[in-house]
Write a structure and sequence with these properties.
Rossmann fold; Elongation Factor Tu (Ef-tu), domain 3; 5 domains; about 25% helix; eight-stranded antiparallel β-sheet; Alpha-Beta Plaits
Length: about 600
């Protein structure tokens, strides 16, 4: 019977106390002894502890008063929303956590909508009630208004001290339904996460829907068709603890022994042989929002980088990549991410977990290009953009952005959002629309416009109080062009970039000036030009080095000196027409790195 099982997760905005609440659950249920406790117990990566954020979902099984709790701790940042959505599909309930001092934030609303899409039972909780800055009445009003519930239905806890946490566990027992029983006799389990172990192969995290799984049974992945023998099953405590079996409704792990990483993927269905069940719906395929080139610091490490990306892809289903070649940097990969923080985390994980240093090129977005023959293609970078005469229409990705802010900062944020090409939709309010209340600005923005520093700008304009959430909305026609850079009359392809037509001149001047400072001087004059379509819109010249060809003259007629100078002048003219300039890698990196 599974009536004693409760599967739930914790969802919240970043820094609202999810991991700390999970720590108290572990402590109160006795899953972890007090002497073994440490902060952020479910954050397994050093990177998570250092940055103070949850990056990966983490399941754990707890026993308390005759009930089995299967909890999944989830990230709070917008770039890891896919981790949250996968977690929600494996549970029946969600604790919606809100900070008593900060109130409802952008990711609070976004995660709530995700939970409602999966028809989960929502348990509203206000955390950090013991903070001096806690504004309990106002936050309760915001949360009750958001959920359309009575304020008395909201639970109040302090995850740090443990106040109210035992009552919250009782609320989970009372409100979250047990896993539903099905009439399906075949074994089926949803794979919601996976990782690779050098000795044991692919290890999958599974929510078992029907039947049971034991070690030694033959399994099949219904999506990829991979088959094998189960080496071990068990639960997370949060360490991997072997068990005799996993039954319907439980969350645990299955060690498959598979060495071919590409045969295992998140969202697949695991079943047992000889009688396999029908595949579960799985997950919607995630679409990357941001693209950047990853190149190994050392050229011969390209194979090592591919292997590392393969293993990271198994553990992070939102990462995509494909091979590409750069004249400046050699062989690398065009990688797709959900945002810039996601990109930064992947870069850091490659360095720490696989000892691969990578060079990251300027992030870009994917444009839809309709050519004159009405064929649609995707351009993820300037080099993939066809010539203007072959383009009928170009469309860029537009995101729907929600900015939650105190009302007194509305003017500042509206001004900044318009500078970033934002289209105003409407404004809604949390609680009472008073001067001390908070509002939600709803905008449509080009994804490319908010890639670099938009988040920093809104934080600065709101004294740190505003929060941002965005999601892909649509593709919309735009006026962009490819900007080519020419050095010594030759187009340098790796330096090509995509620009808005009305910003092309400013961007061209910036690149030209940077190149003038970065390129070494030659014995001949070097022209640097920015070309848009068929016309030059910006240019600079690097003057030639002057070599004193008359230094060895020790006398004689002045015509000897003049003859040498004329010969040098003719040589420089010839070199200017025929000379080729090898651009040093340092100049490439300074221009195309994302730190620019």
């Amino acid at each position: 019977m599974n009536s004693h099982i409760r599967n739930f997760c914790i969802i919240a905005h970043i820094d609202h106390g999810k991991s700390t609440l999970a720590d108290r659950f572990l402590e109160i249920t006795g899953t972890i002894q007090k002497r073994e406790m440490r902060n952020q117990m479910l954050d397994q990566m050093d990177l998570e502890r250092e940055r103070g954020i949850t990056i990966k979902l983490q399941p754990v099984t707890m026993q308390w008063q005759g009930y089995q709790f299967n909890l999944i701790d989830t990230p709070g940042h917008v770039d890891f929303t896919y981790e949250v959505s996968r977690s929600l599909q494996a549970v029946e309930g969600a604790i919606l956590l809100v900070d008593a001092s900060q109130g409802v934030q952008a990711q609070t609303i976004a995660n709530l909508e995700l939970a409602r899409e999966h028809n989960l039972t929502i348990i509203p909780v206000i955390n950090k009630i013991d903070l001096p800055a806690a504004n309990l009445n106002e936050v309760m009003a915001e949360l009750s208004d958001l959920l359309k519930i009575n304020p008395t239905e909201i639970y109040k806890v302090s995850a740090k001290s443990g106040q109210g946490v035992a009552e919250l566990l009782n609320a989970v027992v009372k409100n979250v339904p047990p896993p539903p029983l099905t009439a399906n006799s075949a074994t089926r389990g949803l794979i919601f996460d996976s990782n690779y172990n050098d000795y044991r192969g692919v290890v999958t995290s599974v929510r078992l829907i029907d039947g049971q799984i034991t070690a030694g049974e033959k399994f099949i992945f219904l999506g990829s068709g991979a088959v094998g023998e189960i080496l071990e099953v068990g639960i997370y405590t949060p360490k991997m603890q072997p068990a005799a079996k996993l039954t319907a409704g439980q969350i645990g792990y299955v060690v498959t022994g598979l060495k071919n990483i590409r045969q295992a993927r998140v969202g697949d269905t695991i079943s047992t042989l000889p009688v396999a069940g029908a595949a579960l719906p799985g997950y919607r395929e995630v679409k990357p929002m941001v693209f950047a080139g990853f190149y190994p610091g050392l050229g011969h490490e390209a194979g090592h980088l591919r292997e590392a990306l393969d293993k990271l892809r198994l553990n992070d289903a939102s990462l995509t990549y494909e091979g590409e070649h750069s004249a400046a940097l050699g062989f690398g990969f065009r990688c797709g991410f959900l945002g810039l923080l996601h990109l930064d985390i992947i870069r850091e994980r490659l360095k720490r977990e696989y000892n691969v240093e990578v060079i990251v090129t300027t992030p870009s977005v994917a444009y839809e290009v309709l050519n004159q023959q009405n064929h649609l293609q995707i351009a993820r970078g300037a080099l993939e953009l066809p010539s203007p005469d072959r383009i009928k229409k170009i469309s860029e990705p537009i995101v729907k952005a929600d900015i939650v802010t105190p009302i007194k900062y509305l003017g500042n944020l509206i001004k900044i959002t318009q500078e970033y090409r934002g289209l105003y939709l409407n404004t809604s309010y949390l609680g009472q629309a008073s001067a001390g209340g908070r509002a939600i600005l709803h905008y449509e923005l080009p994804l490319s416009a908010i890639l670099v520093d938009f988040y920093d700008q809104i934080k600065s304009a709101s004294a740190g109080y505003a929060s941002l959430n965005y999601e892909f909305a649509k593709y919309q026609p735009c006026d962009i062009e490819r900007l080519d850079i020419m050095v010594a009359d030759e187009v340098v392809e790796p330096l090509a970039t995509i620009v808005y037509s009305d910003e092309a001149y400013r961007r061209a001047r910036h690149i030209i000036h940077r190149l003038k400072d970065l390129l070494p001087r030659q014995l001949f004059e070097v022209k640097i030009q920015a070309k848009l379509g068929g016309r030059i819109i910006a240019a600079e010249r690097i003057p030639a080095l002057r070599k004193d060809v008359t230094a060895k003259l020790y006398g004689g007629d002045v015509t000897r000196k003049r003859k040498l100078l004329e010969k040098q002048k003719a040589g420089k003219k010839r070199m200017r027409l025929q000379g080729r300039l090898a651009i040093p890698p340092t100049a490439y990196l300074a221009l195309i790195s994302r730190q620019d």
